[in-house]
Amino acid sequence: MIEKIKSSLLCMLKGVIAPCITLFAFSLTIGLFLSLTLLVVSIEEGTGNLSDSAMSMTWAVLMFAQGVGITFGNCVLTIIPLGLTLLLLSVLVALIRRIKGGILAYSTGFAVWIAANAVLSQNTHVTLVDSLLVIIVKCACIYVIALAIALLPKSRFSEVCKKRYQQIFPSWAQKNIRITVRAAIIVFSLYAVVAIVTVVVWSFTHIGSVNSFFLKLGMQNGSRILTTIACLVWLPNVAIWALSWICGAGFAIGKVAYFSLSAAQYKALPPVPVFGIFPESINDCVYRILFNSLIPTVCAVVVLVIILHKRGCALQLHDIKDSVDRKTFMVNVAQSAGDCIGIAAIITVVCSVVFSFANGSLGEYRLAHIGVDIIESTRAVGHLTLYAVGIAWGLAIIGSFFACGVRYLIGLLPHGKSSHKDEDPQNNKSSLSEQSSERTLQKETKEAETKIERNQSAARSKSAARSKSAARSKSAARSKSVSHSKSALDEIQELPPIASHSPVNTTTAEIITATNIATSVATNVATQPSDDSKETLTRQSKAIPATDSHVSATPASSTSHDLPTQPNLRTQKFDALRKQSAAALETLSTLTDTCKPAAKRVYRKANKLTRTIAHGFTNGLKASVQAVKNVAASNTIKATKQSDTVSHNATVRRASSHVDTKSAHTTKRVATAVRSLKSAAHDSTHSLSKAVGDSEQKISPLSLKKTASKPRTVSSKAKRK
Asked: Residue 128's beta-bridge partner residues?
């Protein structure tokens, strides 16, 4: 309970700190500035001390910054200084974010803010336009706005709203809304920058008129500087009026003056230094159009970038022939149109609100309304924004079509050039491909020869222990095939050379390589026994089908046409090579048949091994699980034992504490008994001492008689001493 009270008190203190610090800092700054200004004015004018009223004017300015009007005689000032209002809001928001608290803190801060403003409004000598109830409502609105700015972005309410928003709207709608809001913020901030720059240009170009107003008021340099600084609080108001002036709507100073691009009318303008910076009309049509086109140009550039950017609408058409690309382009066109309309709508609404806050009054009759016409200014800004957005959207579509057309034409150019090329490069490419194929065939033949030599060396080492009779009986038949293949190879090599440009060059090279491989195979088979020849044939036959396919693909007519001499020999050699390849394929089939049972055995053994491994793995897992269970059981037993020991120790401690209490009681009883015994002994000793005293008193006369009968002895003893 005490902790809850402490936490609630801390929350209340946090709520009180924010409004108190804001009011103190704001009042101190304004009070010091006003006291300095009044002191300088009193010194320059030679009047009495005006700084005594600085505190009262400080409270009035504090109310004035929150929208409460003030009066000075016939002057009724209700133009809210938006500079002071923004400064007050920023300080309050920063403190609320810095000093965090709950609902109790914010409610106490709200109450303290309203109470403090109500008290301060009653302690000023300046007459306020509004009543106390209206003042309280306006001050409450300021605190609520600051509280919303400080807390809503990171509150639970905003998180719930975001989740609900994400559930209701699809992803494409969320993306378009985000793009629209961000683009509207960027465009409005650029409008503000343009307006502030316009005010700065007015200030530098109309210094003479401001100086004339200072001369009419009879101000010296010090008061001029301080009043100029004080006029900066109305800079946002004047910037809003400048935005209306740039868009063509203009603004008015009551019924006294009216300023726009095309006209500037003023009669008996009051000598207020801020009014001296207002511009004249622009007579040149070119400059007028230039000023009037600033806002739409800025808006069009920003919207065009947003439409074409990848993070924006990404309005691009890559291929006009692609149906998917066309559909996406049309969808992006529709979405970008919706975004543009949303941007114009948001800016129009915001500008109407801002224009309404910038207006006010400086009197009761002719100066009762100062500022802009809200409807006309909103219409001017909204129309210019809408026109700029539409132009940007149209330019984006035209630019995307133009870029797509340029890409399409560039894509057509390489096809047109390639159709007019000569046939020589194609022939060169074919010759290069033939040369590369020849090189690859040569590499393959070399690799095959090296493999054959390795197999021969291995087979010779194995065939030494085997029987020589079987090798001799089969060597005769194989030597014949070798001699036939060698003779065929010699006859092919003795043929006349073929020109390099003939298409049969590659086929002849392939035939020669095939014959070389066949002769090497034959020699290997002649040297190896029957069992090892099967293995070598399987390895060597991989290179033969490639050459055989080329051989079969080359017709006899082409060879006979290019080589008119010895056509019959060629065909015979080709037939011999085909027969040898068929025999090699038969041997391969027999080898595969013989290898099937061995493969089945290997497969069975592999299955057995996998089963044993899986069985062992499962057994190991079971053993590990059992071990974990045992460890857990032992741990539970230990834990129970420890708990039992702890409970036993607790009971022992309780018993010992009980025994200690009993022993303490017994010691107390013993101590009381000892005390009673001591008191009894003391009483007995006291009674004994009394009895002894009485006995001494009774015995004393007898002793006197005895001493009187013996005087000499006593004197003799005294003498001795």
From this structure: 70
Q: Rounded to whole angstroms, what are the CA distances from 360 to 67, 192, 265, 372, 656?
A: 10, 20, 20, 10, 89
Task: Give the mean pLDDT of the chain.
Answer: 74
Query: What is residue 264's three-state secondary structure?
Result: strand
Question: DSSP class of residue 73?
Answer: T
Question: Among the ranges 233-237, 267-271, 423-427, 585-589, which has the highest mean pLDDT value?
Answer: 233-237
Give 482 or 611, the one with higher predicted confidence.
611
- Indicate the SS3 state at residue 528: coil
**Residue 83 and residue 234 in contact, taking contact as beta carbons nearer than 8 Å:** yes
d(CA 304, CA 392): 5
For 576, counting Cβ atoms within 10 Å of its Cβ (0-12 exposed, 13-18 middle, 19+ buried), the class is middle
State the pTM of this model.
0.57
The encoded tokens of residue 239 equal 């910037």
512 CB burial (10 A radius; 0-12, 13-18, 19+) = middle
**Distance in angstroms (rounded) separating the CA atoms of residues 206 and 220:** 19
Instruction: Write the DSSP symbol of residue 502.
Output: S
* Rounded Cα–Cα distance for residues 133 and 117 (Å): 11
β-pairing, 370-371 vs 264-266, is: unpaired
The dihedral region occupied by 142, where left means phi > 0, alpha psi between -120 and 50, and beta the remainder, is alpha
Torsion of CA 114, 119, 125, 127, to 10 degrees: 40
| pLDDT at residue number 694 | 63
Pick the closest to residue 18 from 104, 80, 94 (CA basis): 94
- Look at strands 251-253 and 370-371 and give their pairing: antiparallel
> What does the pLDDT read at residue 472?
54
Closest CA to 513 of 539, 561, 565, 549: 549
For residue range 40-92, list pLDDT tens digits in order: 888 877 666 666 778 888 898 999 999 888 887 777 888 889 999 999 999 99
Contact 349, 356 (CB under 8 A): no
- The pair of three-digit structure tokens given for residue 175, joined into one six-digit string: 């993306």
How many whole angstroms separate alpha carbon 404 and alpha carbon 691? 143
Helix (H), strand (E) at residue 127: strand 127-128
Specify the pairing of strand 264-266 against strand 75-77. unpaired
The count of C-alpha atoms lying within 13 angstroms of the C-alpha of 505, restricted to the half-sphere facing its C-beta, is: 17
What value does the mean pLDDT take over residues 250-263? 87
Task: Please state, in angstroms and as integers, the Cα–Cα distance from residue 509 to each residue in 50, 405, 443, 577, following that order.
Answer: 118, 52, 13, 15
Distance (Å) of CA 135 to CA 70, 167, 205, 365: 12, 42, 40, 24
Distance of alpha carbon 35 from alpha carbon 41, whole angstroms: 10
Q: What is d(CA 483, CA 646) in angstroms, rounded to the nearest whole number?
A: 103
Task: Tell me if 53 sits within 8 A of 125, measured CB to CB.
Answer: yes
Element at 449 (helix H, strand E): helix 424-463
Which residues, including other chains, have CB under 8 Å from residue 248's CB and lie 6 or more apart? 260, 261, 262, 292, 380
Least Cα distance to 32 among 273, 233, 230 occurs for 230
Q: Say which range, 386-390, 606-610, 633-637, 650-654, has the weakest mean pLDDT.
A: 650-654
Give strand ranges (E) for 236-339.
251-253, 257-259, 264-266
Helix axes of 82-98 and 132-151: crossing angle, nearest 10 degrees: 50
DSSP 66: T
Question: Is 531:460 a contact under the CB 8 Å cutoff?
Answer: no
Residue of higher predicted confidence among 143 and 461: 143
